[in-house]
Amino acid sequence: MTIDQFWSIVEKVHAASEGDMDRKCELLEAELRRLQLEEVRAFHAHFYECKDRAYSWELWAAAYIIGHGCSDDKFSDFRSTLISMGRETFERTLADPQSLADINYDADSADYEGYQYVPTEVERELSGGQDFPRSRPHPEEPSGKCWDENEVANCTQSLQRNTNIRGDGIRVAFQLANFPR
Fold first, then answer.
1. How confident is the model over 126-148, as pLDDT tens digits?
2. Is 83 helix (H, G, I), strand (E, B) or coil?
3. 41/165 Cα distance (integer angstroms)
4. What integer best gives the mean pLDDT of the chain?
5. Exposed, middle or buried, 108 (CB in 10 Å: 0-12/13-18/19+)?
6. Is residue 95 in a domain?
7. Integer CA distances (angstroms), 18 to 21, 52, 60, 133, in order
8. Is residue 92 part of a domain?
9. Does any domain span residue 83?
């Protein structure tokens, strides 16, 4: 499976899900079940490569502002959700994390946990329960310049400006492509 084939599956699932992350997981599982085990493993390897590319301090700062805090687990979920939205959104965001301020983004769905588990579940099913290691380890540290929680707003000023407070709690006034409100 090529990287283009990987993104074709991701984008097909994203479009059909209308941004509903539970539905997106169901659709991804159905697409992956149509593949041979080696193709699912290749899909998973491309997924890890993309997730590792998104492991940057600047993107983590954006996730921190969007989520009003962001642990390492939540940042993992955030990056998986970002991948789930397709190549164009993913690449634009990696090039400029502040571009998230220009996208309609639901902060409650920004760090959805589950999408990243679908390839593993399908691999296990197709292999009779076998777990496969990553082809290379996760980076030890995010790329870029580390930031302090007290100074994170300086890293992502346009995201900070788009944050507002309403009676129902803190919300981010943007939502990544096609997330339901």
1. 999 999 999 889 999 999 888 77
2. helix
3. 43
4. 83
5. middle
6. yes
7. 9, 26, 25, 32
8. yes
9. yes
Residues 115 and 75 sit within 8 Å (Cβ to Cβ): no
Burial of 29 (0-12, 13-18, 19+ CB in 10 A): middle
Nearest by Cα to 116 from 58, 75, 160: 75
Q: Residue 72: which of 44, 100, 45, 111 has the closest Cα?
A: 111
Tokens for 57? 């301090």
Total domains, the chain? 1
Number of residues in the chain: 181
pLDDT digits (tens, 9 = 90+) for 121-131: 999 999 999 99
Supply 140's token pair. Answer: 């030890």
- Give the residue carrying structure tokens 């290379």: 136
112-115 contacts at long range (C-beta below 8 A, 24 or more positions apart): 112/21, 112/77, 112/80, 112/81, 112/84, 113/73, 113/77, 114/21, 114/22, 114/25, 115/21, 115/24, 115/25, 115/28, 115/80, 115/81, 115/83, 115/84
Q: Which domain holds residue 69?
A: 3-130+149-172
Q: Does residue 139 lie in a domain region? A: no
